């Protein structure tokens, strides 16, 4: 059984600026009953974010803070080595869209996250958008990323959970990525046509 809820509140300060708060939470009952294994546990995942958008003639600036987390608790003991855990991350971010001209936009952003177990992550990103013609655009960008390790994976059969070892002496994955795409977009009567070709590379 999975139960989810989400909420969003927006305050339009004026015709350009706005303040936004949003959040979501999901409760998941990990109740497993097979002929070889059983588990009775609950898993809570949540995300909240507050952001402020400020617009000028040539710039759109977004700043904000968010808090995310996941909590796993066993109701009954079982034969696995999967331990209870409580992960939480607080992040601060800023992003600026600078319209250099009617054809050229520079988008830059910086994010810093602090995880309660895996420490700090500094995540810059940068992209250049060029409007080739009225319906053609191209974008080139890149940045840093990360992923927190977890024992739960959709590719693992639930009957194999007793064979999993606990997470010990491991680090979060860090990545460096770059991307380039070419985009065509046009409205034809009631139809909305988009054609996109994207290339990307990542180093983990």
Can you give me a brief rundown of this structure?
By secondary structure, this protein is mainly beta.
Give a verbal description of the structure.
The chain is an all-beta fold and 204 residues long. It is built from no helices and ten strands. The chain has strands spanning 2-12, 18-33, 38-55, 59-74, 85-99, 104-115, 119-131, 136-147, 173-188, 191-203. It has a ten-stranded antiparallel β-sheet, with no helix packed on it. A hairpin with a 4-residue loop joins strand 2 and strand 3 (38-55). The protein starts with a strand and ends with a strand. The model has no long low-confidence stretch (mean pLDDT 91).
| Form type | elongated
| Rg, Å, rounded | 22 Å
**Mean pLDDT, rounded to whole units?**
91
Tell me the series of helices and strands, N- to C-terminal.
EEEEEEEEEE
End-to-end gap = 34 Å
Strand fraction: over 45%
Strand order in space, largest sheet? 1-2-3-4-5-6-7-8-9-10
Q: Helix/strand/pairing class, anyone?
A: mainly beta
Measured as a percent range, the helix fraction is under 10%
Extract low-pLDDT stretches: none
Count of individual helical segments: 0
Largest sheet: 10 strands, antiparallel
Count the beta strands.
Answer: 10
List keywords for this structure.
single chain, mainly beta, 0% helix, elongated
List the helices and strands and how they pair.
Blueprint: E1 2-12, E2 18-33, E3 38-55, E4 59-74, E5 85-99, E6 104-115, E7 119-131, E8 136-147, E9 173-188, E10 191-203
Antiparallel strand pairs: 1-2, 2-3, 3-4, 4-5, 5-6, 6-7, 7-8, 8-9, 9-10
């Amino acid at each position: 059984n999975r139960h989810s809820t989400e909420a969003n509140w927006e305050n339009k300060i004026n015709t350009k600026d706005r303040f936004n708060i949003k959040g979501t939470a999901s409760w998941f009952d990990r109740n497993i009953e097979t002929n070889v294994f059983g588990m009775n546990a609950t898993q809570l995942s949540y995300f909240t974010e507050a952001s402020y958008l400020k617009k000028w003639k040539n710039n759109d600036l977004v700043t904000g803070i968010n808090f995310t987390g996941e909590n796993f608790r066993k109701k009954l003991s079982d034969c696995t080595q999967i331990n209870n855990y409580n992960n939480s991350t607080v992040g601060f971010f800023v992003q600026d869209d600078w319209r250099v001209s009617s054809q050229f936009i520079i988008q830059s952003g910086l994010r810093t996250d602090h995880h309660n177990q895996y420490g700090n992550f500094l995540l810059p990103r940068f992209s250049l958008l060029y409007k080739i013609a009225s319906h053609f655009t191209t974008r080139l960008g890149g940045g840093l990323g990360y992923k927190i390790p977890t024992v739960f994976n959709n590719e693992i059969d639930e009957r194999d959970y007793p064979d999993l070892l606990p997470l010990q002496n491991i680090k979060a994955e860090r990545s460096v990525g770059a991307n380039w795409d070419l985009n065509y977009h046009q409205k034809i009567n009631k139809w909305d046509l988009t054609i996109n070709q994207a290339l990307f590379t990542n180093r983990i």
